[in-house]
Amino acid sequence: MKKISIIISLILVIFITSCSNYYYDQEKLNIVTTTTMLEDLANQIGKDKVSVTALMGVGVDPHLYTPKAKDTEALLKSDFVIYNGLHLEGKMVDVLDKLGSSKPVLNIGNDVLLKGTVLSDKTGYDPHIWFDVNNWIIAANSLKDKLIELDSINKDFYELNANNYINKLNDLHEWILNITTTKLTKEERILVTAHDAFSYFGNAYDFEVLSIQGISTVTEASIKDINNIINLIIDNNVNAIFLESSVSSNTIMQVLNGAKAKSHPLILGNLLYSDSLGNGEDSEYINAFKYNVNSIISGLKGEDYEK
To answer: Beta strands of the chain (E only): which ranges?
Structure first.
């Protein structure tokens, strides 16, 4: 019986190992992030000293994401876990909050809550902190400090990378302020999207932001919500509405069709990155943000924007 038990145990170990999707690099600091935004941040500061795995891929909605067995494996095997917090990772909140007792974790939202701008509504904190570049500078500094704590021998390396990246973030912030105020009048700066991911963008860069759904995509828009948005679009002579890369197009299409039924010439702007970055060069936060801003400007001006 004992021999059979040992054989079964060995089979299970082989099965689990063969099904494993997580690669642990013995030569590097192994980091697991929840989102693509945090994945890019870790790569920008850690560069070749780190191996980074994001649990949520391109186009994945973190509000609705359900953790998988391979996610548990990655979280347990990694050296360090970074997550957004502020309930962005809705169904993973309990797991992530408990990880701190067993390994190093960084809750970026907590640091921004202490040092930056965190918005809220009646449902709680707005987790989409990365849409204010100043908040992302806080995130970069927090990550740099944590990397130095975990890998002090490479302190100078992390400090140099963080300083260079923060300079680029400062340039991005100034570019957004300049181009939005130069290209759009105050009256034109009205952004309509599927869910309320862009309030930080509006607050930082002087846009009025209207959304069909709330902060979380778990909430569903009612017919009343849709009709209210249509009326606001018509009353404010808004030219464009925008889909988001990680959100269903259903409600946006209802608004678009409803406006057209009322003879308002509304166009569908470029797909915006909201809760996820993109592929290629848009897998980097700065490039994705620039793409969003250029798309918003061209859409609101009734123009085509192609990269």
So the answer is: 29-33, 50-54, 80-83, 105-107, 120-121, 124-125, 190-193, 208-211, 240-241, 267-268
